[in-house]
Amino acid sequence: MDSSPYKLYHVDSFDSRQYLDLYFSDDPDMVFTEDTLKFPIENLRKTFTEGHVKGDVLIDLSIGSMIHPLYAACEFFKHIIVLKANDRCIMELKRWVDERTGAFDWGHTAKLHVDIEEKSDQLEDKDEKMRSALQHIVKCDFEKENMVDPIVLPLADCIISVWLLDVISKSQDDYIRYLRKISQLLKPGGRFILIGALNATYYTVGKNKFHIFNYDENLSLKALSGEGFIVDCLKVKERTSVSDLIDYKAVSFIAAHKEMSV
User: Fold this and answer.
1) Angle CA(10)–CA(53)–CA(116) in degrees, nearest 5?
2) Which residues contact 245 (CB under 8 A, 6 or more apart)?
């Protein structure tokens, strides 16, 4: 019996659009820009442009319907496969891909990318490249042996996971188990980019508080090492925002690669 007073992201009703508005929008009242937008974007751009992360297939397993971490990836990968456990997240994401009326506006994050890359003249190309790459949005179930059964996915050259393990794990054992399951989607030698919210217990969407597993970067490093990963980069950014919506203390960025089989 789960004793947590908070709802679970992948089990209970989750309003993906409210989540985007609260934590990723360009609204003047959105206080998380430095932590949820700039920090991931700057580190992803640096990781990809160093040239170590490339290939044909990238798989994204992240919370909600966010796409801003993928703007850097679409420059290097032809095929981006996004896995979502929540139907509302899938619907919200497809609305943007299909350019439907009322889709969430990611223009401010695309601009952040081109500004960082010093390619402001390529702003329109960003969305085109993203939509071209992001054509596979697949429903998943984290408790199945094959999360996307009956589909069999190609092994990825790179996996990006942003704040997902934080919200689906209720314990250290859960965190390690889900990380193992995700890592099985990666080729030997493939790259894993893991972004997390450290020392947190809840986040708020609308009137509901949702669970976050409370851990620090040492657990992430231990779990990755246990699954045969070598960590190439670890960055931890102390929280800068002031808000009662969520109680994280810092944000972590980890880039690692999976050891080749002997």
Assistant:
1) 85
2) 22, 23, 203, 204
| Type of residue at 5 | P
Spatial separation of the C-alpha atoms in residues 129 and 73, rounded to whole Å? 10
Q: What is the pLDDT of residues 143-166, one digit of tens each?
A: 999 999 999 999 999 999 999 999
SS3 per-residue string spanning the chain: CCCCCCECCCCCCCCHHHHHHHHCCCCCCCCCHHHHHHHHHHHHHHHHHCCCCCCCEEEECCCCCCCCCHHHHCCCCCEEEEEECCHHHHHHHHHHHCCCCCCCCCHHHHHHHHHHCCCHHHHHHHHHHHHHHCCEEEECCCCCCCCCCCCCCCCEEEEEEECHHHHHCCCHHHHHHHHHHHHCCEEEEEEEEEEEEECCCEEEECCEEEECCCCCHHHHHHHHHHCCEEEEEEEEEECCCCCCCECCCEEEEEEEEECCCC
With beta carbons less than 8 A apart as the criterion, state whether 99 and 105 touch. Answer: no
Amino acid at residue number 260? M
Indicate the residue type of 220: S
Q: Which residues of 121-158 are buried (b: 16+ CB within 10 A; e: fewer)?
A: eeeeebbebbeebbeebeebebeeeebbeeeebeebbb
- The string of pLDDT tens digits covering residues 219-257 is 999 999 999 999 999 999 999 999 999 999 999 999 999
Q: Which amino acid is at 18?
A: Q
